């Protein structure tokens, strides 16, 4: 009777986790709303506006910016729905990596999980860097505005101070992720309401206080390129580049999946959090991007002069940027922890350790913070650091989505054990559209964003990614394929049957 009673009381997500061969190690205390808040904050609306609003507006004008969000949102729903179905079936930490291993089968599973895990780890760690950079830009702007603006002799933080702010934010996020996961959840709840309520206030008030405004017809229909600034004369190419701000903002909803081992009823609440975060940001995206165009420019440490987002948008993005950095650090640490738990990272025994009191992968948190800090060092010399980090983050992060989605699309339906959220016959067409969209997204982030191509305008993301992924695949061919078998069960591994 006691065993039956415990089984009845067991959380449905924990029960499914045990069936998959993993014991519950992390603290399962996250509610649906807290998980949703973290997922939404990882996507965060305003941190996409602040660094990329001006350049995207320059490429093709306001109409392309607004309608680009609608197009990107439409295809993002396919990706989100495909991932929600898989999340419902596999509510595990390190979700995408685990999904890829199981969905690809015993033959291709190890390679699929290896590629997925490293793509996602690269994307997430670079994602921390994008938020640290965006947060530093916000701090830089606040200092400039408080000391006289760029036209009034205000203080513009030099490169070394910008780097200090970048590293400082990264360290703060690491400390909070080590000792205060519940605080992060609370901050993310505040951030979510900040963006929803604050975004509404900005959209309503901005037309009332702006010195110059444009009619709605201008915002929704005006197309204008700026070849004298961007060097791009092709209208189609300019439109493709103007979509980048939306593609950069509309990912990160997999954060809900990373927290499924810490979420109550994760087999149901994980998919709900994924789809709800996409739904909320889908509604508030177009109004935020239809802010009236203002004729002002600013120069940043990055070295590029562009029309910025309205100053109130820029200032109000500080809290969301910090919250997004916290959330992405949380996700990145979970991926590194999951991969280390399965011995897929050098010195795995170190990175898989759980903090004895707070029950979080503390060492994995600090590894991610250290690598992110190293990514920021080129700020001292190179002007296009943000473009490169953004491209690396998007390609790695979104590219990681493609592996399990493709595996789900080609696997036999009878081999898939569905969870509460199940697409049935719609699964394959949804996965096909999602996979093609991901391939397109990864491709456009490899394109040059300014012409003529020179050392200070070159998008070096393809080179950085090529070298990094080349070394990882070389490691696989030479050594890792001999011993890496994907996720390892930790319930029965002590009996010598650890492989999935």
From TrEMBL:
One of its GO terms (molecular function) is transmembrane transporter activity. It is a multi-pass membrane protein. It comes from the Eukaryota. InterPro entries: AA/rel_permease1, Amino_acid_permease_CS. GO terms for biological process: amino acid transport. It is found in: Membrane. Keywords: Membrane, Transmembrane, Transmembrane helix, Transport. Gene3D superfamilies: Amino acid/polyamine transporter I (1.20.1740.10). The chain crosses the membrane at residues 32-54, 66-87, 160-186, 192-210, 360-380, 386-410, 430-448, 460-478. This is Uncharacterized protein. It comes from Eleusine coracana subsp. coracana.
